[in-house]
Amino acid sequence: MKYLEESNKNLISLRTSLIAVVALLTGGLVGVSLANMSLVYKSFLLIFGIYFEVLFIANIMRINEKINKNIGVIKNECK
After folding, report:
1. I need a labelling partner for 32 at 20 to 30 A (CA). Which of 9, 63, 69, 79 fits?
2. Quick check: helix, strand or coil at residue 37?
3. Cβ contact 70:8 at 8 Å
4. Taken in order 57, 63, 65, 68, is the CA torsion positive or negative?
5. Closest to 31 (Cα-Cα) out of 49, 18, 57
6. What whole-number distance in Å separates Cα of residue 64 and Cα of residue 74?
């Protein structure tokens, strides 16, 4: 059970870091979309930025599922 509690602490920390990265990446995408640069370069940056943003959001959702699963296991062991 101690392992699951430590695992949850680690997952929560990772989730917090990923949320900060998504916020920073979103700001960067807005900045790129408003920047005065060539359309090809802007499109290239936006495509990769959106790809990574979706990837990080999917990881956040996966981490949330793991945290919920660990909490369920901890609750069942405490009964």
Report:
1. 63
2. coil
3. yes
4. negative
5. 49
6. 15
- By the 8 A CB rule, do 67 and 8 touch? yes
CB atoms under 10 Å from CB of 25, counted, come to: 17
Residue 21 tokens read as 């990265």
In the numeric block, the tokens 């359309």 are attached to 39
Q: Helix (H, G, I), strand (E, B), or coil: what is residue 40? A: helix
Q: Report how far residue 15's alpha carbon sits from residue 20's, in angstroms, rounded to the nearest whole number.
A: 9
- For 27, the 3-state DSSP assignment is helix
pLDDT tens, residue order, the chain (79 aa)? 788 889 999 999 999 999 999 999 999 999 999 999 999 999 999 999 999 999 999 999 999 999 999 998 888 887 6
pTM: 0.86
Structure tokens at 33: 């979309």
Six-digit token string for 22: 């998504």
